[in-house]
Design a protein that fits this description.
It comes from Alkalihalobacterium chitinilyticum. The protein is α+β, with helices and mostly antiparallel strands. The chain folds into 2 domains: 110 residues, Beta-grasp domain (Ubiquitin-like (UB roll)); 136 residues, Fumarate Reductase Iron-sulfur Protein, Chain B, domain 2 (Orthogonal Bundle), CATH 1.10.1060. The chain contains 8 helices and 7 strands.
């Protein structure tokens, strides 16, 4: 009798960045194949808590709804993940939903991921192109390299790996697993390799590789299965070679 089934949610809410968080309980009518986002939509449509009190609609972010954009990241039953692929049937009740704690809360489940985006800027996670004129065909990437580089390119900057990493916190300037993996990706690109040394020098400094504690939480939590720890190991080798170049190049 799924039409009579009720799903209970406990949502951690926060009015603004400076206010204290609090929990509010909601009940949502069950539907087959329901995910957390569809439940939040029901709450938004009828924002009444279990006490029968009218309240404000819960705020959260979403976009693609198919685990591609990374916008709907939140902590569900203690695990950081995408709410679009979190199916109610696979979750223990009551379902507890809260914002990721690594990032500042804007309101309710909406967070400010500027820390991660600033880190991507810091490591120059792009390929600089001077001008928009035709540069001709670029160098080709070997197929074996292209295959593993494609796996790294699946990163959707969801922030889940930073949330699960114990070394990413308010007392640390560690840039986190995702930006490090992007360094490996762009250094492997035939054109991006032009800025290889610059990227390596960046992660050899404060907040870089030395801050990684190798807990491996990141690779276990990544929703896209990106081999983050493999990238970090490869970057350790690359930065070691770069440090030797720096040392002997100074003589």
């Amino acid at each position: 009798m799924s039409e009579n089934k009720i799903i209970k949610f406990i949502v951690t809410r926060q009015e603004d960045p400076n206010s204290a968080p609090y929990q509010e309980e909601f009940e949502v009518p069950y539907r087959p194949n329901m995910n957390v986002i569809s439940a939040l939509m029901e709450i938004r449509r009828n924002p009444v808590n279990t006490k029968g009190e009218n309240t404000t609609p819960v705020n959260w972010e979403m976009n693609c709804l198919e685990e591609v954009c990374g916008a709907c990241s939140m902590v569900i039953n203690g695990k950081p993940r995408q709410s679009c692929t979190a199916l109610v049937d696979q979750l223990e009740q009551p379902i507890r939903v809260e914002p990721m704690k690594t990032f500042p809360v804007v309101r309710d489940l909406v967070i400010d991921r500027s820390r991660m985006f600033d880190s991507l800027k810091k490591v120059k996670a792009w390929i600089p192109i001077d001008g928009t004129y035709d540069l001709g065909p670029g160098p080709r990437m070997p197929e074996t390299k292209r295959q593993w580089a494609y796996e790294l390119s699946k990163c959707m900057t969801c922030g889940v790996c930073l949330e699960s990493c114990p070394n990413v916190n308010s007392k640390s300037d560690f840039i986190g697993p995702a930006p490090l993996s992007q360094v490996r990706l762009f250094n492997a690109h035939p054109t991006g390799e032009m800025n290889k040394e610059e990227r390596l020098e960046t992660i050899m400094g404060d907040g870089g590789l030395a801050n990684c504690g190798n807990s491996q939480n990141c690779v276990q939590s990544c929703p896209k299965g990106i081999p983050l720890t493999t990238s970090i190991a490869a970057l350790n080798r690359s930065t070691t070679i770069q440090s030797f170049k720096n040392f002997f190049g100074s003589y």
